[in-house]
Amino acid sequence: xxxxxxxPASASAGEVSLATTCTGELVLEYTGxxxxxxxxxxxxxxxxxxxxxILINSPGGYAYEGINLNRMARAHHLRTIAGESFGAWSAxxxxxxxxxxxxxxxxxxxGFHYAYVPFNENAKTDTVNxxxxxxxxxxxxxxxxxxxxxxxxxxxxxxxGWAGFVVFxxxxxxxxxxxx
Length: 180
Description:
Elements: E1 15-20, E2 26-34, H1 38-49, E3 53-61, H2 63-75, E4 79-82, E5 88-89, H3 91-98, E6 102-103, E7 109-111, E8 116-117, E9 120-124, H4 126-139, H5 149-160, E10 166-171, E11 174-179
Parallel strand pairs: 2-3, 3-4, 4-6, 5-7
Antiparallel strand pairs: 1-2, 7-10, 8-9, 10-11
Helix pairs in contact: 2-3, 2-4, 4-5
C-alpha cells in the first residue's frame, strides 16, 4: 500500500511509504538508493506515523548515509526487516544491522561490504571502513570501538564466519551466512 501525498517532503533519493509485509503487518517501506537526507526522511516518517518497523528494499548507496541510518536505527530502537522483493544491501545493510536485523521471509537477504571510492571499485577507503566497522560492532552490542579493521574482521568472522562480502538469509527460522 502506498498512499500518495502522505509524508514529509525531505530531500533524499530513497523513498518511504506505508506498506504491508508478506504477513500483512503495517510497516514503513524504505526503497531506492541510499542518499544524503534519507535518515531525516525516515525519522520524520517514524515521528509522523508512530510506526517503528521498517521494511528495507534497497541496493544501498552512500556509505556515510548508511552510517547515519545505522546510528538512527540504534538510537530509536527500530525494528528493521530485510524485504522479500529486494533486501537490504551495502549501505542499506548498515541500516538493517543497526536495528533488529530481521527477515521478511525465508528468501529475504541482507549484506554489507567494504566501502569503495566511486568510479574506482578497487580503491579501499580506510576512514569510511573504520567508521563502518564501528557501526557494525556497536550493532552487535560490542562496546569496543576500533580503528583496527583486523579486529573487526576477527569479530565478525567469529560471529558469522565473514571473509569478504556477506550475504545474510534465513531458512526455516535459522540465519545462514554465504561468504564470498
